[in-house]
Structures are given as structure tokens and as C-alpha cells.
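Annotated sample (chain length 341).
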Amino acid sequence: MNGSKTVVGIDIAKRVFQLHWVEWETGEIVSLQLKRERFLEHFANRAPCLVGMEACGGAQHGARKLTAMGHEVKLLAAKAVKPFVTGNKNDRHDARAIWTAVQQPHVKAVAIKTEEQQAILALHRMRSQLVKFRTAQINGLRGLLTEYGEVMPQGKAGVRKGITEALARLSDRLPAMVIDTLREQWARIEKMDSEIATIEQRIKLWLKEDEACKRIAEIPGVGPLTATAAVAIMGDAKAFKSGREFAAFAGLVPRQTGTGGRIKLLGISKRGDTYLRTLLIHGARSVLTHAKEPGPWVTELRQRRPLNVAIVALANKMARTIWAMLAHERTYQKEFVSQPA
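Output written by the structure step:
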């Protein structure tokens, strides 16, 4: 138990919430099912308690509401809850597993984000989705043109350069309805280009208004997308004990396996947020391949390690730098050398 506070595990869903707790005074085990409409009403009439929930869809909103009522809320990753599920999987057992997991000292909580942070993440998610749709449309168009001997270069720029001439050549061989449909698909791709550019412009405007984003955008390899995503995904920087812990959260540290005191390091763990990790690695790659003076540390690393290893190492360093600047409210200093506390 958490002192005199009652601990409540909640398995949330679209319409029905399952609650599990033990009355600390009597030891009575309670399992309660609530409709969404009555969920907040139930906690409005309770004494402050420790609430555990899985960090899934709608959990952030519920966490903010419960925190405003005076309750302590911990959001847990589904992977941290799974080991505590016993018996057949159902809502009652899931709520009990969350109740158990939230009381374990080694289980780390997910940071509760503000509505503003979730708003910028919504822009990132919509942009990412449009990029995937655009890539699928371009690949589909290239595949259709290949069937008629018009092989387009890879990449959006190559298709844009040759699409007009390719369709003009095919217009004498194919029915007009097919050519019109191919032109409509290309117009759809260009419309998505415009929508993606609009979202990116909105992200840049948010960058200019947020002091933390502007500070970390000074780091080489950290652009508007990486800066805004890092601040929004991290939430409260002090929720992480160190820069290495944040780098581990982004999946940029080695996996470990071992027994009998012998530890073997493997490739990066790829845990945590895939989107943030991708942005950091792309930013590190741009520094290594395009920067005129990447710095002595990067240059020396590149000389003794393969390119991809150096890229991940630089991405790890960028993640640690981002955490240090946000946690200690510092500005970027190119020649800064950290000192032990």
C-alpha cells in the first residue's frame, strides 16, 4: 500500500472502465465496473488516492482530470503491466494487474503530458500519416507506369520530373479514362505535398513560440520536427534521472543479455518512441554526412567505427544533450564539457 492512500488500478476502454482496489482499513477486495459517463463522478466523491492506468488512448486526458481532483496518477506502459496478468485475460484481471504493477518500485511511470504537448504531437502524427499515404501513392503510381514500360526513378523528385512526359507518351496507347485517372492520382499526391507543408509550417510557428524548443533547436542535427517532438514526448524532463535514462527511453542504448555476472551488449534496444528515435537518427546522419565541421568527437568516432554505429552514437549523444538542456534550463554551448557532480 502507498501509506494511507488507497491504490486503484483502472483498465480503461471506450465505454466501460474496470476498477480494482483493496480497502486499506478493512482489507476488502473491490472490483467495480463503471460506464464512462460515471467514471469522473466516482472519483470526484473519493478521498485522494493513487491511481494506476495503462498509457493508452484516452489515458492522458483521464490522468489530467484525476490530477486536477487531487489524486496521484501514474501511467504505466502496457509492457510493464503484462507480467502481472494472471489467469485468462479479461478486464478484471487487467485491472488487478495494473493495481499490482503501480505499487512496484522498479516500474517506471510514463510522464503525463499537457494538452499543449499533446496538441503538437497530434500535428506530428497527422504529418507522419500523410507522409505514409503519399509514399504509398507514389509507389503505386510508379508500379502502374512500369507495367507499360515507363520506369520512373525512385523518390518523389524523380517521379515529379518525369511524370508529365510519361503520361504524354502513354496517352496515344492507353484509353483516355486510364490516363485521366493516373493524372488524378498524381494531383492527389501533390495535394498531400501541400498539406504536409502546411502542417510543417504550423510546427515551425509553434517552435518560435516555445522557449524550450528554440533552445534545443540550436543543437546540430536537431531541426524543428525533432525539437518540437522531443519536448512534447518527454513531457517533464525531470521525470528522467539522467540523460542516459532518456536515451534508453528513446531506444538508443544497447540491449543486454547475460548470466553469472557476464554481460553481453547487443544492438540498440529500439524501445520507447519509434518516431522520436527515427528523427534523432536522421538528424545524426545529416550531421555526419553534410556538416562541414561535425566536431572532433564525431570525427574521431567516425574514424574507428562503421558509419551506422557512429550515427547511433551521435543520436544517443543528441538525446542526452536535449535532456541536459531541458532539465537544467541551459542554452547550447558547442565546447561545453560536463563535470561530475
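Annotation: Residues 115-209 form one domain.
Annotation: The longest helix spans residues 176-209.
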